[in-house]
Amino acid sequence: MKVSALLIICLCLILGTLGKPQFPEQEKDPKFWNTFAQRTLKNALTLQNLNRNKAKNLILFLGDGMGVPTVTAARILKGQLNGEGGEETVLEMDKFPFVSLAKTYNTNAQVPDSAGTATAYLCGVKANEGTVGVSAAAVRSQCNTTKGNEVTSILRWAKDAGKSVGIVTTTRVNHATPSAAYAHSVDRDWYSDNEMPAEALQDGCRDIARQLFENIPNIDVIMGGGRKYMFPKNVSDVEYPNVAKHSGTRKDGRNLVQEWRDRMETQVQLFVFSYSLFSLFFLFYLINSRNTDTDPSLTEMVEVAIKILRKNPSGFYLLVEGGRIDHGHHEGKAKQALHEAVEMDRAIGRADLMTSTHDTMTVVTADHSHMFNFGGYTPRGNIIFGLAPMLSDVDQKPFTSILYGNGPGYKTINGVRENVSTIDYQDNNYQAQAAVPLNTETHGGEDVAVFAKGPLAHLLHGVHEQNYIPT
Ligand SMILES: *[C@@H]1O[C@H](CO)[C@@H](O)[C@H](O)[C@H]1NC(C)=O
Ligand SMILES: *[C@@H]1O[C@H](CO)[C@@H](O)[C@H](O)[C@H]1NC(C)=O
Ligand SMILES: *[C@@H]1O[C@H](CO)[C@@H](O)[C@H](O)[C@H]1NC(C)=O
Ligand SMILES: [Zn+2]
C-alpha cells in the first residue's frame, strides 16, 4: 500500500506538470488488442510451413554485451529517435520468427567474458574466460597449454566448404569476439608480440594479429579497428596520415598489412574490388577515432561486406560485431551503449534488404549481458534516459530509470547520493548511478536472447547452451 500511495502522490506531482502519459486512443478499445493479437496469430500459423531449405549463406550479428534489457531499451530509444513513444516500436531483430535463450557461462566462470563466449558461439565448444579458439583444457596465459587444444570456428568450416567469409566489427579485428573466428590464443590480450611475455614467444605462441593473416589466409572481408598491432614499432601508418601519431606496436618489425597486400595481389578477380575498397577506406580504422565524415558506420560496412561476399556462388559466412555496446556499458554510459545497439539494428535491417530468407540464415545474439537495467514505474513514452516519476521514499531525491548494478556511476556527495536533478542526466557521457562503485562496470550473468530467421531457424528454440549456436 505504501508504494502505491507514494506512486499516486508522485504521479500527481510530476504528471501534474507534464500532463498525462500519452498513448493512442485506439488502445482503449479491446478490439484493437484483439485484432492485433489475431494478426500476430495468423502470422505465427504460417510458421507451420517450416523453412527446411539448406542455408547457403549465414550471417551472425553479435551485439557484444547486448542483454535483453539492452534490447528493450534500444527498442524504446529507436522509437523515440523516430518521434514515437518507443514501447510499441518494432526492432529489426524483433521481426525474426524464432527466439531462444542461450546460457552464457564459461567453463570456469558463472559470469562470462567475451573470449570464452566467442569460443562457444563460433567454435561450438565452451571454454575458459580470457581464451579464444582453444578448449577448456587450455589455461589462460599459459602458452604451453595451447598445443593440441585448438578448436576451429564456423568461419573456418565455411571457408573449407568453399564459401567466402568475412568479419566486420566496430572494435579491433584482433579483439576477443572476432579473434575466436581465426585465432587460437590462451590469452585474449596477446594482440601483438608487444603484449606477450617473452616466455610465451619462446614457447612458440603467436600473437593474435599475426594469426589473423596466417591461420586462415584469404579471409575475404576484414573490417574493423586494431591496425596498430599490424605495424612495427616506430613505423607510422602512412595510409592514415591524420592518425600517424599512432605508430605500430610490433617488436618483430613485420608490417602485416603490407605482407597481406603483397599476397592478395596475386589473388583472383573476386578480391580486386574488395582489395581496393577496404585497404583504402575501411580496413582497421582505429578504435575511438571514428570520424562520421570519413569513417564508415556499421551499416555501411555490412552493406559493403555483403556485396563482396555474395559474389561467391557457393555462399558466404559473415560475422558482424556491434562491439561498442559493451564498451558503453563498461563505462556506465548507457546512452552510448544504446545508440550502438540501435545502429546494429539498422545494420540488421540493411542485411535483410540484401538477402533472402530462402537461402540465408541470420542469427542475432549477444555474448553476455551487463549489470544494466531500467525501471521505476515510468509512464508510457517516458524518455528512456529520463527520470522515474517519483522521488525515492528513502532519500527524497529523484532517480533515473536507467541504473547499473555496479560501475563508475556510483556517486556520493558528502556521503549522500547525488541529486540527479542538479545535473544533465541526458548528456551523451552521463554515467548512470550504480549501486556499487567500480571503475569498470561488469558483465551480467543472465541468459541472452538468440533471434533467428531463414532456413532451419526453428532449430534455435528453447533454452540452450551457447555452444549449440554454430552446431
Ligand atoms: C607451462 O608454463 C608454466 C608457466 O606459464 C609453467 O609454470 C609450467 O611448469 C609449464 N608446464 C610445462 C609442462 O612445461
Ligand atoms: C623506437 O624509437 C625509440 C626512440 O627513438 C628507440 O629507443 C627504440 O629502440 C625504437 N624501437 C624500434 C623497435 O625500432
Ligand atoms: C534536488 O534538486 C532539485 C533541483 O535543484 C531541487 O529542487 C530539489 O529540492 C533537490 N532535492 C533534494 C532532496 O535535495
Ligand atoms: Zn565486456
UniProtKB/TrEMBL annotation:
Q: Which residues form the signal peptide?
A: 1-19
What's one Pfam family the UniProt record gives for this protein?
Answer: Alk_phosphatase
* Gene3D superfamilies noted in UniProt: Alkaline Phosphatase, subunit A
What is one term from the GO cellular component aspect held by the record?
plasma membrane
Entry annotation: catalytic residues = 114 (phosphoserine intermediate)
Q: How is the cofactor bound?
A: Binds 1 Mg(2+) ion. Binds 2 Zn(2+) ions.
Domain of life from the UniProt record: Eukaryota
- Which UniProt keywords are listed? Cell membrane, Glycoprotein, GPI-anchor, Hydrolase, Lipoprotein, Magnesium, Membrane, Metal-binding, Signal, Zinc
Q: Which residues bind Mg(2+)?
A: 64, 175, 177, 321
**Catalysed reactions listed for this entry:** a phosphate monoester + H2O = an alcohol + phosphate
Descriptive protein name = Alkaline phosphatase
Recorded source organism is Sphaeramia orbicularis (orbiculate cardinalfish)
